[in-house]
């Protein structure tokens, strides 16, 4: 399920709008929440670094990561089988047994 806030009405079906439209103020994109029965995340564009990047925040744990365009392209090049180790719930358990 995709939830669009009132700030994200310019974003449809996960497509990012061209920078020149956003910079000219045509759209005010704040964030998008993607929620399923397995996870809930919020994604947003972040321009506070050396260049544009995507911020992904897990809504259940508040863990977040920033991905630059190269990292996103590498993700796009990946096959689903290559992502399976990331989906292993055991990797989130603490190593010290607590």
What is the compact description of this entry?
With 98 residues, the protein is of the alpha+beta class. It has helices at residues 19-23, 69-77, 80-83, and strands at residues 2-4, 32-35, 40-46, 53-58, 64-67. It has one domain (2-89).
Shape: globular
Integer-rounded radius of gyration: 16 Å
Report the sheet-strand fraction.
15-25%
How many H/I helices? 3
Per DSSP E runs of 2 or more residues, the count of β-strands stands at: 5
The main sheet comes to: 5 strands, antiparallel
Low-confidence stretches: 1-14
What share of the residues lie within helices? 10-25%
How much is the average pLDDT? 76
Element-by-element helix/strand order: EHEEEEHH
Q: What structural class should be given to the helix and strand makeup?
A: alpha+beta
As an assembly, this protein is single chain
Strand order of the largest sheet: 1-2-3-4-5
Number of domains: 1
Report how far the terminal alpha carbons are from each other: 34 Å
Give an overview in words.
The structure is a single chain. The protein has 98 residues and is an alpha+beta fold. It has one domain (2-89). It contains 3 helices and 5 strands; from the N terminus they run E-H-E-E-E-E-H-H. The chain has helices spanning 19-23, 69-77, 80-83, and strands at residues 2-4, 32-35, 40-46, 53-58, 64-67. Strand 2 (32-35) and strand 3 form a beta hairpin. Residues 1-14 have low confidence and may be disordered.
């Amino acid at each position: 399920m995709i939830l669009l806030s009132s700030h994200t009405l310019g974003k449809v079906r996960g497509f990012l709008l061209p920078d020149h439209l956003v910079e000219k103020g045509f759209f005010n994109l704040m964030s998008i929440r993607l929620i399923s029965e397995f996870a809930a995340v919020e994604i947003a564009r972040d321009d506070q670094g050396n260049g544009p990047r995507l911020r992904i925040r897990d809504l259940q744990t508040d863990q977040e990561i920033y991905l630059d365009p190269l990292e996103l392209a590498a993700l796009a090049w990946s096959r689903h089988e290559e992502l399976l180790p990331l989906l292993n719930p055991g990797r989130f358990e603490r190593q010290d047994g607590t």
